[in-house]
Structures are given as structure tokens and as C-alpha cells.
Amino acid sequence: MKNTNAGRTSPPADVDVLIVGAGISGIGAASHLRALRPVMSFAVLEARDSLGGTWDLFRYPGIRSDSDMPTFGFGFKPWTHRKSIADGHLILDYLQQTVAEYGLAEHIRFGYRVLSAEFSSAQGRWTVTARHSSTGEIAEFTARFLFLGTGMYDHDAGFTPEFAGVEDFGGRVVHPQHWPEDLDYTGKRVVVIGSGATAVTLIPSMAGVAGHVTMLQRSPGYIFSSPAEDVIANTLRKLLGHRRAHKAVRRKNILLTRGVYKASLRAPKLMRRLLIAHVRRQLPRHFDVDTHFTPRYNPWEQRLCLVPDGDLFKAISAGRASVVTDHIERFTKTGIRLKSGQELTADVIVTATGLVMSPFGKIRLAVDGHPVSPPETTAYKAMMLSGVPNLVFALGYTNLSWTLKTDLVSEHFCRLLGYMEAHGYRTVEPVLDDPYLERVPYLNLTSNYVQRGIGKFPRAGTRGPWTVEMAYERDVERLREGPVEDPALRFTAAGPLLSESRQGGAR
Asked: What CATH code is carried by the domain that includes residue 338?
């Protein structure tokens, strides 16, 4: 959905809740507010000219979900397409349908990139400064609560290492995050540098058009093949209807994914053998699985890559794609020279070398004139920051579908708003007063992109509401079923929760 604000009354500049980001997290939060707190005013600021976040930004060939859609989709809106591992345009359609069904379009302001946000304790409000992408206009918005649905990555730039000789290469070098519309790789020799989720998505998609595609990796990762269509889910939909089947399919998929994850932690050697054997069965007998698909680390120390219907392995088996495991010495005029002495000839080189992690959309936060440094804060229930009032953020799971977590955060946020309204509270602030609490990284994955960027994020604690556990069942207990009131929360009651602009008999 492109910018549809023209000719429509814009959302007010003063609201109860200001949501930053119209991707899957922000759309989910707005939908929950409409359903659970319909009396409250809200607006959504989106830096781009269209909604969808990741699913609108990334345009590389074959972009798709790396989680099953019944759990990556919202809990309140069933996924109805036959494909469980879905193409990017199907996910974008799903998000646009959600916006239409919940009447969210009139609440979204496109083209506003949030630069800074400062909370005033005296006023009990956030003042948010944003720049419009097309006019350069600087605008201010005020809100009681700030909800950050900005995701985990820098949308402006992906990560590309410094490659010696890249300027000598006579072909074209592209990063998947900035895929050029005019790139024609028909019949050409393509080298994709990387072995993560983006690389294993690109390679089978490009292999059907390119002359040949080579996956160049420094070291292999775990790759798991899953059917693109879930036969059980599609059968249940026919028998029970979409809404009733949705609950059963989500429960099944959560249990299966959590089971694989827990087994990987408890029996890593067994799971390692099973995962590698699963790959070996899908490749030709002579293929060197030990070199190219046997990782040095245990399962789930890094995120497991999912490929639908084994499409990567089919492309390799058919000879349309190949894998080289080596280190790059330098780029040359005709390709890449490796440290082994081998040279890979290429017309196009794709640097699927990772993303850049960036907390909270690079927004400069402050409270009463004091800048907030995210690494100096501690995450409360993995959704609020110590010492920062009236702010909620949504960061999803790394070992399960992202949206399962952001859904729970939005639900708990609505419960928190209801609790505050019922008690006449205006502000809420997590307060960490335990000097002996050990603080640890927000994520514990060993992936390079995590290790490069996690130092910019809030820290987690090792006990109580300060833990960040990638465990859905535990988050259900504390976010959906647990109480809102908590000794770690400090509430103030200086005035009503609802914005002054909306007070009066109409409510």
C-alpha cells in the first residue's frame, strides 16, 4: 500500500499512543489498539512511502518468509493461503488486508522519519521530531506513549566487508538490501557471497534464470528443508474453516519448532547428526556434505536456515548451482580469487554478507533533557526500558516466528493501558533497583551480525522480569496471563491517561 494520505484527514499530531513503523510489528500494535483499546487515539509514523517494513524494502529475487506463516502471521488474523512458507508479495498482501480490515490507513502518516523523541516528566508526554522524506519538513508530534515497532535492523544499509580489489571487478556488485530494478542476470555467471537466510533464498531463485550460480561461503551453516505447503494445515482448513483451524495449526507449529529448538540445546550431537543426515539425503551421493554443509558450531547457536521443498538442494543437484567453501583473497577483473588459489569467474557478484543491527530505528531518545543510551538500560519483560517512562518496544523471537513475540507485547501493552486508565495513572517507568543483578547481552546468538551489533542494544538481566528469554511459553505466562502490576514498575497519577485533546463528554 503506497501513501494514501492525500485527500484524507491526517491523524492528529497529539495522540495517546504514537507508533513508529508500519511494518509487521507496528501494524500488529495498531490492530491490537483498535480491537482492545478502541477509545484511545493513535497514529503511526512510517519513514517510507508504503507500509510493510521488511516486506516492502527488500526486493531481491525469491524473497520469502523464513518461518511458517501460521505463526509469523498475526494471532488475530488467520493465514489462509495454501503456502506455509510464503513469498514476500503474499506477506505484503496479508499486511495490506490487515490495514484495510482494521481501518488503519487513516492513522498512518507516510514519509516521516523519526529523528528524536524526548519525554517530559512534568508534562507526562513524549515530543517526537520527524523529517518528511519528500519535503524535508520537520514536524513535531506529541503522545502519552511511544511504541517502537522499528525492528532490529538498519533499513538504510546492509553489511558488506571490505573486499580487496572490488574496484577492479568488471562486472556488477550488488547487495540484496539494495537490489537494482535494472539488474539482468539472464544467462550470466553469478557468485553469491554468504550462506545465511538471504543467500539460500537468492540462489535457487536466480538459478532458474542465470547461467550458473555459485554460493561462496567461508563456513557452512545449518539448513533445514520444509514443505512449502503444510498438508495438515490445509486439510484442517477444509474441515474446520480458517479461524478454527488457525488455532490448531499455530499450536502444532509452535510445539514442533520449540521441540526442535529444545532438542538442539539438550542433545546437540544428536540433532547435529539428524540435520546433516537430512541434508545428505537431498544431495547427490558424491556431494561433499562434510565440507559444504557441516557447520563447526552446534545447532541453534546461530539461526537455522529454512528452505522450502529443498529448493536449494534441487538447484545444486540439477547442476544449476554449486557451493564453494573458501576464503576470499581479492576481487579481480573477472571475478574472485580465493585463498586456495582457485578463481571464480563471475559477471554478477551478490554480497549477501549480512545486515546491520540497529536499535529503535536510530532514534535519539531522551528523558527530561538527559540522553538515553540503550546499552545502559535494561529491558523489562523484553518490552520496556529501565529508567524510560511510557515507552514500549517490540522485538521478536530469533528462534521462533518474530510475530509471536510482538503479538504478546502488543497484548500486554493494551492490558497495561487499561490498568493505568482504571487507576488514574499517567506514567509508568520500569525501575531497576537491584545492584546485584547481572546484566547480559540482549541476544546470545553467535552469528557475526549479532556479535557486531548487539552492543548497541539494551542489556538483559539474569532473573525476574529483566530476563530476555526466547521462550514463547514463558512469555505467555508473564505477558498474557501474568499480572500487570509489578514491584519493578513505578506509576505516577498526576492527571488522566487520555490525551488532553480527546478529553470531554465524547468519552
From this structure: 3.50.50.60
Same domain, yes or no: 83 and 169: no
Half-sphere exposure of 203 (CA within 13 A, CB side): 33
Backbone angles phi, psi at 45, to 5 degrees: -100, 125
- Structure confidence by residue, pLDDT tens digits, 102-111: 999 999 999 9
pTM of the prediction?
0.93
Domain that holds residue 451: 14-155+358-500
Task: Please determine, for residue 446, whether its predicted confidence score (pLDDT) is greater than 60.
Answer: yes
User: Which residues contact residue 8 at a Cβ distance below 8 angstroms, ignoring those fewer than 6 apart?
Assistant: 105, 106
The stretch 194-218 carries a mean pLDDT of: 96
CA 58 to CA 395: how far, in whole Å? Answer: 19
Distance from the Cα of residue 114 to its chain's centroid: 19
Alpha-carbon distance of 411 to 472, in angstroms, equals: 14
Q: Where are the alpha helices (DSSP H) in 76-161?
A: 88-101
Residue 39's CB is within 10 A of a number of other CB atoms, namely: 12
Which string of DSSP letters, residue by residue, matches 17-29? EEEE--SHHHHHH
Residues 390 and 249 grouped into a single domain: no
Q: Please tell me whether residues 463 and 377 are part of one structural domain.
A: yes
Three-class DSSP category at 102: coil
Give the 3-state secondary structure of residue 286: coil
Give CA–CA dist 86/369, Å, rounded: 45
Pair (250, 174) in one structural domain: yes
Give the span between the Cα atoms of 413 and 148, in whole angstroms: 12
**Cβ within 8 Å of residue 274, ≥6 positions away:** none
Owner of C-alpha cell 535492523: 153
Half-sphere CA count of 341, side-chain side, radius 13 A: 0
CA distances in angstroms from 426 to 386, 413, 496, listed in the order given: 17, 14, 6
CA dihedral sign, ordered 469, 470, 474, 479? positive
Residue 250 has pLDDT above 50, yes or no: yes
**Who's near 415: CB < 8 A, 6+ residues apart?**
484
pLDDT at residue 497 is higher than 50: no
Residue 482 is which amino acid?
G
